[in-house]
Amino acid sequence: MAEKVSPRFSGQPLLRRSARIIDLDEEMHSILTSTYREIAVQVPSGRQRWAHRVKGIGVQHNGARGPYKGGVRYHPAADLEEIRALASLMTWKTALTRRSLRRREGGITVDPTGMSQTELQRMTRRFTNGISHVIGVYRDIPRPT
Fold this sequence. Notes:
This protein is an alpha/beta fold. It is 37% helix and 26% strand. It is built from 5 helices and 5 strands, in the order αααβββαβαβ. It has a 5-stranded mixed sheet. It is elongated.
């Protein structure tokens, strides 16, 4: 049986190998493997009169190119490790394709099945409000996925 690999580190061996091939200096490698900012907020789930709270996570991976842009994942297994991995993988992908956007990802640890459109909208607005101090047209542009 194969050992379970953390999503965060699943892309790390490939990055290390690639860094050796292109002779990437250690400082740049460190920048590419770490996140710039991580935010965790409590978000009412929209069920049972907002009594149940779930975790909302935002990760800004790298601030080298243009405003941050990325998705918000709604999934019961969404956690900091997964969101870090998604943000870093998308940073590397956009850099390789020469897109000018920095990457950020977000997630809300919730099962959206069975939730009404209104409940999802309220939850998304509360998450957005919780991270509002770091978002804006020229800074960070979240979008649902």
